[in-house]
Amino acid sequence: MRIPDDANAITARHAGWTLHCIGEWETPRGGRTTYLAWVKAWGPMIEPFKIAGAPLTFSADTGDERVRATYGEEKYARLVALKDKYDPENLFRLNQNIKPSGSA
Fold first, then answer.
1. Over the Cα atoms of the chain, what is R_g?
2. Residue 85 main-chain phi, psi, to 5 deg
3. Nearest Cα to 96, choosing from 20, 52, 76?
4. Is the CB of residue 87 less than 8 Å from the CB of residue 95?
5. 50-68 b/e with 16+ CB inside 10 Å = b?
6. Is 70 exposed, middle or buried (0-12, 13-18, 19+ CB in 10 A)?
7. What does 39-74 look like in DSSP terms, one character per residue?
8. CA-CA distance, 32 to 49, in Å (whole number)?
9. Cβ(56)–Cβ(66) under 8 Å?
């Protein structure tokens, strides 16, 4: 049974494959700049091939823009409405946060 794309917040269920870049190194903390630059450059290289909806657990760099892009505006608005109803004080915020509409 196929789940309609708008049935829940999970997007891109139709994707044929998933790709996730993980950068690890053993050098001291001071040498990480080169490796981080390589990992961060990887995203723009695959941009032409990706679809919206990559799971937020695949990214450590999650700001509001990334969260919105993951869900799309329609789903994001539905998630904000749920947040407004069940967590208006934004208690559950130590994650890839959906902010309630009254939050700054």
1. 17
2. -80, -45
3. 76
4. no
5. eeebbeeeebeeeeeeebb
6. buried
7. HHHHHHHHGGG--S---GGG-S---HHHHHHHHHHH
8. 27
9. yes
The tokens of 14 are what?
């139709």
Structure-block tokens of residue 17: 């494959």
As given in the structure block, the two tokens for residue 82 are 């749920």
Q: pLDDT per residue over 7-16, tens digit each? A: 888 776 777 7
pTM over 0.70: no
Q: Which residue has the tokens 């993951």?
A: 70
pLDDT (tens digit per residue) in 47-104 = 888 776 667 777 666 678 888 888 888 999 999 999 999 999 999 988 888 899 987 6
